[in-house]
């Protein structure tokens, strides 16, 4: 029984580390695209918002609007070959509702952003063997012997209503 609990804790810690590294990768990529990261791992009673970022319309790949807008970015990091299509299937209607409620709380607490157009984006990150992945951005994780790759960035992935 103790061994099973230890294995479970190890898997949970590995998943948490993968999530944190995936979020850091996406935040760095957003900054390279000209975005300003407003908050990361923001918590409220409804859950966590992984990344909240503001775009100024400088990047053709994400924001073609010249006016600032705010994106609530959900990052899904998975091992290569995951059964939920690199996290796509994890954005259920229930998860969308939690993100929407969390975004409402964020905007209520941060009124300086309340008037900006807002959207929900999803970033899909995959963990794979060193040097084998291709995507929007990659980072080698030396202490783990693998590569993290931002495989897809889905703009306006779901409606926040």
Per CATH, what is the topology?
Trna Endonuclease, Chain: A, domain 1
Poorly predicted runs of 5 or more residues: 59-64
Largest sheet: 6 strands, mixed
What is the class in the CATH system? Alpha Beta
CATH architecture tag:
3-Layer(aba) Sandwich
Rg measurement, Å: 16 Å
What number of structural domains do the residues give? 1
Helical segment count? 2
Shape label:
globular
Keywords:
single chain, 161 residues, Trna Endonuclease, Chain: A, domain 1, 2 helices, 6 strands
What does this protein look like?
The chain is an alpha+beta fold and 161 residues long. The chain has a single domain, classed as Trna Endonuclease, Chain: A, domain 1 (3-Layer(aba) Sandwich). It contains two helices and six strands. Strands 1-2-3-4-6-5 form a six-stranded mixed β-sheet, sandwiched between helices.
């Amino acid at each position: 029984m103790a061994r099973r609990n230890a294995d479970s804790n190890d898997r949970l810690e590995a998943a948490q580390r993968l999530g944190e590294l995936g979020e850091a990768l996406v935040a760095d990529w957003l900054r390279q695209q000209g975005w300003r990261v407003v908050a990361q791992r923001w918590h409220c009673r409804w859950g966590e918002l992984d990344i909240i970022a503001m775009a100024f319309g400088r990047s053709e790949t994400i924001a073609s609007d010249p006016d600032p807008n705010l994106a609530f970015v959900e990052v899904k990091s998975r091992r290569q070959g995951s059964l939920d299509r690199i996290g796509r299937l994890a954005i259920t209607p229930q998860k969308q509702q939690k993100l929407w409620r969390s975004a409402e709380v964020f905007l209520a607490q941060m009124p300086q952003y309340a008037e900006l157009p807002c959207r929900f984006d999803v970033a899909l990150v995959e963990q794979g063997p060193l040097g084998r992945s291709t995507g929007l951005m990659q980072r080698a994780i030396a202490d783990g012997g693998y590569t993290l790759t931002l495989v897809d960035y889905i703009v306006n992935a779901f409606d926040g209503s």
